[in-house]
Give the backbone structure.
Amino acid sequence: MPSKSVNRKNVSAMNDYLLDACALIALFNDEDGAVVVSDLLDRAKLGEITVSINAANLIEVYYDRIRVIGSAKADAIIREMQDTFPLSIIETIDFNIVREAACLKALGKMSFADTILVATAICTGATIVSCDHVELGPIERQGNVPFLWIRPQF
């Protein structure tokens, strides 16, 4: 599948979205791009699309919340997210994802969580939802994974 940046006008053409940690953090912090993530979750509630996050990226979200608001509040927010967000948590990593992630990690300086993110998208055909142009922009330019950027590159 060719890679492309997707704006909100053509989001409806795709069905499966995979959140990078920064997308969920943007939603929690009401940062630029939060409305894009919120719109995706609203569409997932309606059953129009699926929205997922892998466990590696959820760990990043969780420790960000702990740093910002403390452990007890972070626990409550993550529990509430699990109970109310139409968000699937990908808790297992099959061998195909392991292999893809290992190949990605061997090629460059990508973080562990981002290698899992990209490998999951490659293996499932999901569109990555992110604002991390620095780390993931080169992946998009390779043309193997579609992206939905929640805010423009600065």
Observations:
- The longest strand covers residues 50-54.
- The chain has one domain: 8-149.
- The longest helix spans residues 55-69.
- The helical segments are 21-29, 34-45, 55-69, 71-84, 95-107, 112-124, 133-142.
